[in-house]
């Protein structure tokens, strides 16, 4: 018995077949370049056929699929729990595209195709915004005209919620303490990056807002920026809204600062010392500075912090980021142990010194497992 977990993007489908009881991935893969000329994959329906073929080739049994879990980016104000997909909920997910124009339409297409292919099993939507439904109003509200905000659904929603929820839960397991007693800062550092403050298992603050553009410096996204910059680009540079959108989402962050968005390439640029290493070093410094700022802010938001957890591609793998972001914070109760931090391990582990009042951890995220378990509850 397995759950098929789908993350359908505009030109890609990420899939994983999960055994929700054992908690293991049976098979996984990625179909890319959907709809791109020369790829031979005209649309998502064909992309899914490709995915089934890949699963079949790996020896997986598609007849054993008992549920399909769909990652959906935006749940708006209405959806925050894992939700059984019906014609009506699907229509609502499509209506929420105004809030997530890049993501929800692609998620909806994936759902439609998979419902046709697996008509007899429950399909469950798990929302990236869901975990942050609990944000207090003071954290979720932008200080703008409230009638304008209400009319257009403008508030802070937060994203990567499945990961933040999973990782904060894992922290409690690893530390052997009740989740309800733990205050944790989770730093999800992947291509996209976000921070959250979690009090007793409930999210009270997060760095992403109306869209996944706010907050930390990311691979290609700017994160926090003075909104005045947007008006300036419009007026002084004559840029159109679409161009500004593209600039901030795709040509900013690490990529904008030094030309590469992958941390391994960034490190190589810095170490090679040639042309480009100055820009790469600055990109790294800006990234670390922003991260430290958020850690400091969330220490204040939570008041008492028990744990700080790093997760996702950069957070799990880049020891220097963990070390540099938290360096010199002993007076705030944070002491990373250099040796533990550099240990070569794939497991969830503590990397702070035994004497550190705040425990620092590396916790591999597993959004697919979290989605599979959520979907499994509907079987
Ligand atoms: P996504 O947000 O796309 O799910 P991931 O969480 O997989 O991203 O993170 C991808 C990023 O992780 C890569 O762009 C790269 O910068 C970083 N990364 C992956 N492996 C390593 C590594 N061994 N060392 C440093 N950074 C890494």
TrEMBL record:
Comment on bound cofactor: Mg(2+). Can also accept Mn(2+).
Binding site for Mg(2+): 7, 367
InterPro entries, A to Z: Ac/propionate_kinase (IPR004372), Aliphatic_acid_kin_short-chain (IPR000890), Aliphatic_acid_kinase_CS (IPR023865), ATPase_NBD (IPR043129)
Any one GO MF annotation of this record: magnesium ion binding
Binding-site residues for substrate, renumbered to this chain: 71
CDD domains according to UniProt: ASKHA_NBD_AcK_PK
Catalytic class of the enzyme: transferase
Active site: 128
Sites marked Transition state stabilizer: 160, 221
Pathway(s) per entry: Metabolic intermediate biosynthesis; acetyl-CoA biosynthesis; acetyl-CoA from acetate: step 1/2
Positions annotated to bind ATP: 14, 188-192, 262-264, 313-317
One of the GO BP terms on file: acetyl-CoA biosynthetic process
Keyword Transcription: no
Record's keyword terms, sorted: ATP-binding, Cytoplasm, Kinase, Magnesium, Metal-binding, Nucleotide-binding, Transferase
Protein location: Cytoplasm
Superkingdom of origin: Bacteria
Catalytic activity: acetate + ATP = acetyl phosphate + ADP
Family recorded in the similarity comment: Belongs to the acetokinase family.
NCBIfam families for the chain: ackA
Name of the featured protein: Acetate kinase
Gene field: ackA
